[in-house]
């Protein structure tokens, strides 16, 4: 019962991680203009994301421009696009697989099949968390390096936006969920290896009767 409750808790964490992963991938505020120097009195908020750049004016106007050219983008944005999409796909696969493998569901067949499905779903969550953690860390590193660069004017400096923090938290949720699913299945299999089921050997009465019959023939 405790293992089933723990798996359900991990499944809820994975759901939050999937929704946060998709949200972080689509949000345009991976980095925003920093409020330093002369930018403090500006009436324009500029945001840059993986797929579009947006500008928010103090009058309420909001405009976005899609990034059509892939090759013209910096390498860290191209890598972030690829890894975030892979993270979303793997986490969605993990949700489908763990739904079958969880103990509280009636899908997946016998106990061994459900255990293997649960382990596979946990691996998908761990890979999705890694794929989500790498681009957010790399993107944050580029923003900080650009912010600390003295040769870049203050009007061109940026800070990490809400999408980066959402990606970090979602990756953490997916990693925790994946570890819980994998360890819950591993403990069960390890217990089966340490304490294997005892096999009872019963003498075959049929062989004894046949042996007695053969001896009688020779008397």
TrEMBL record:
Function of the molecule: Claudins function as major constituents of the tight junction complexes that regulate the permeability of epithelia.
Membrane topology category: Multi-pass membrane protein
Subcellular localization, per the record?
Cell junction, Tight junction; Cell membrane
The Swiss-Prot or TrEMBL record annotates one GO molecular function as: structural molecule activity
Q: Which GO terms describe its cellular component?
A: bicellular tight junction; plasma membrane
Please give the name of this protein: Claudin
Traced from the root, the source organism's taxonomic lineage reads:
Eukaryota, Metazoa, Chordata, Craniata, Vertebrata
Q: What keywords are annotated for this sequence in UniProt?
A: Cell junction, Cell membrane, Membrane, Signal, Tight junction, Transmembrane, Transmembrane helix
Q: Which PANTHER family match?
A: CLAUDIN (PTHR12002)
InterPro entries found in the cross-reference section = Claudin, Claudin_CS, PMP22/EMP/MP20/Claudin
Family, per entry = Belongs to the claudin family.
Where are the membrane-spanning stretches? Answer: 75-97, 117-139, 163-186
Q: What is its main location?
A: other
**Could you name the domain of life of the organism this protein comes from?**
Eukaryota
Q: Where is the signal peptide?
A: 1-20
């Amino acid at each position: 019962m405790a293992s089933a409750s723990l798996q359900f808790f991990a499944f809820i964490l994975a759901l939050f991680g999937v929704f946060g992963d998709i949200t972080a991938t689509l949000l345009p505020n991976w980095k925003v203009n920093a409020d330093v120097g002369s930018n403090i009195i500006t009436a324009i908020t500029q945001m840059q994301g993986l797929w579009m750049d947006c500008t928010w004016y103090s009058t309420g106007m909001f405009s976005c421009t899609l990034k059509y050219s892939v090759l013209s983008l910096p390498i860290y944005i191209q890598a972030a696009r690829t890894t975030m999409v892979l993270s979303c796909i793997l986490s969605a696969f993990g949700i489908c697989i763990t739904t079958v493998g969880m103990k509280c569901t009636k899908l997946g067949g016998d106990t061994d099949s459900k255990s293997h499905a649960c382990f596979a779903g946990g691996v998908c969550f761990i890979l999705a968390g890694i794929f989500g953690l790498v681009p957010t860390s790399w993107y944050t590193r580029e923003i900080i390096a650009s912010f600390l660069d003295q040769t870049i004017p203050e009007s061109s400096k940026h800070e990490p936006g809400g999408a980066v923090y959402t990606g970090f938290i979602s990756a953490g949720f997916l990693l925790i969920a994946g570890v819980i699913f994998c360890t819950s299945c591993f403990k069960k299999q390890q217990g089966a290896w340490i304490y294997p089921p005892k096999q009872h050997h019963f003498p075959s009465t049929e062989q004894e009767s046949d042996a007695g019959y053969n001896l009688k023939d020779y008397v």
